[in-house]
Amino acid sequence: MEEVLGYLKISVKRGINLARRDLFSSDPYAVVKMGQQSLKTRTILQNRYPEWNQDLLLSVTDPNTPVFLKVYDKDAFTGDDEMGEAVVDIKPFLEAVRTAPPEPPVGSHVMSLPPNPHNCLSKPSVIMVSGSGKITQEMKVRLRNVESGEVELKLEWVNAGGCKGFCRGRFASGFHTAARSSQLLSLHSKDGYA
Fold first, then answer.
1. Predicted local distance difference test score (pLDDT) of residue 130
2. Hey, what's the torsion of the CAs at 55, 121, 60, 105, to 10 degrees?
3. Residues 28, 44: contact at Cβ < 8 Å?
4. Composition of the chain by helix, strand, coil, percent to 5
5. How many CB atoms lie within 10 A of CB 150?
6. For an engineered disulfide with 127, which of 40, 137, 140, 164 has Cβ 3.0 to 4.6 Å away?
7. Which of 67, 127, 64, 133 is nearest to 93 (CA)?
């Protein structure tokens, strides 16, 4: 079984200028995938500027595994239409979490990432220490393979079993098994997170 290094909370905030897939608008929802894990937001009816404000929790077992975001238009009678996709490279974020001091000053900037041809950022993104002392990254990603659309996300690291930063080797009882990770994701799904 793979060891869980921690959890990545992805806040899917909102969509901006999403593509029209129905006569006048779209009924968008977002799907976030990482490895074998797949979670989705609720569907917002007839809105090209949806406010999802939904938190999704993924277990991280390999820091090199990217996060895939795909937006769809919900259709009642046909298959759902694709509305664009983005790849979120979480390596810089996880590196910032790994190398951050144990108690970094609140509000401090850990790292700044500019948009480039290898990421989907539509503007610079800053990894910083939030008011609660957690490492976070707010970003706006441009959707690919579509005529228009962006999605605002926020990443936040959640420690596994009380560890600080990356947990390597030793874990609190029960948090390192894939079965426990599945239970946690299942609980969040029942609470409306997926």
1. 85
2. -80
3. yes
4. 15, 40, 50
5. 20
6. 137
7. 127
Q: Spell 49-83 as b/e; 16+ CB within 10 A means b.
A: ebebebbbbbbbbebebebebbbbbbeeeeebbeb
Helix ranges (DSSP H) in 13-128: 91-99
CATH class for domain 6-193?
mainly beta
Q: DSSP character for 5?
A: -
Q: CA-based angle 27:31:35, to the nearest 5?
A: 170
Residue 67, φ and ψ in degrees, nearest 5: -105, 130
For the beta carbon of residue 38, count every other beta carbon within 10 angstroms. Answer: 15
Task: Indicate whether this model's pTM tops 0.85.
Answer: no
Asked if pLDDT for residue 136 goes beyond 80, the answer is yes
138-147 in b/e form (b: 16+ CB < 10 A) is bbbbbbeeee
Instruction: Give dist(CA 16, CA 181) in Å, integer.
Output: 32
Give the model's pLDDT for residue 33. 98
Report which residue type is found at 59: S
Instruction: Give SS3 for 184.
Output: helix
Does the pLDDT of residue 60 top 80, yes or no?
yes
H or E stretch covering 180: helix 178-188
